[in-house]
Write a structure and sequence with these properties.
With 165 residues, the protein is mostly beta strands. It has a single domain, classed as Metal Binding Protein, Guanine Nucleotide Exchange Factor, Chain A (Beta Complex), CATH 2.170.150. 0% of the residues lie in helices and 43% in strands. It contains no helices and 15 strands. A hairpin with a 2-residue loop joins β11 and β12.
Length: 165
């Protein structure tokens, strides 16, 4: 399958097609929040994002940015060729449970040590996730966990027909 034609970024935007492979981890200056079940379950100015070709950024928050009880071990695991072995977590807030909606790398691979004690959350099952003052949209499809904001342009991997990118 051919690589799709990237959208040309406008002022203040970046193309996910300019992101590297292997991915890069970078600090985020904006406030990042997550709401579930009507309540604020995570709030931090200490997030990092992972940038990988064709994917919107995945935001990783410190585990201690979540309210007590918001993250609970869940069944399942996966392996990323770059970051290593991931475990899954249920996300809880306001009486709601988003099963397996978060993951982290307890012992990330070399080069990804910044992800230690951090967790990423799928935006789709949450009430609302924000970066700065902007509400994010989930990455298309159900597998990848990127957060789409107005500052990134695609097309993004995850939607129909993107498996071979």
């Amino acid at each position: 399958m051919r690589r799709p034609r990237p959208v040309v970024p406008g002022p203040g935007q970046e193309s996910v097609w300019d992101y590297p492979r292997p991915p890069r981890v970078e600090r985020v200056d904006d406030r990042v929040t997550i709401r579930l079940g009507g309540g604020l379950i995570a709030d931090t100015r200490d997030a990092v994002r992972v940038l990988e070709t064709s994917h919107p950024p995945v935001y990783y928050l410190p585990m201690d940015a979540f309210v007590a009880g918001a993250l609970v071990d869940a069944p399942g695991s996966s392996f990323c060729e770059f970051k290593g072995a991931a475990r899954y977590l249920d996300v809880r807030g306001g009486g709601e449970v988003a099963a397996g909606a978060a993951w982290n790398y307890p012992h990330p691979s070399a080069g990804f040590e910044a992800l230690t004690e951090r967790v990423a959350v799928y935006a789709g099952p949450m009430d609302r996730c924000t970066v700065g003052d902007e509400v994010v949209a989930p990455q298309p499809g159900g597998f990848y966990g990127g957060w789409v904001t107005s500052s990134v342009v695609g097309p993004f991997k995850g939607g129909p027909g993107s498996l071979g990118w």
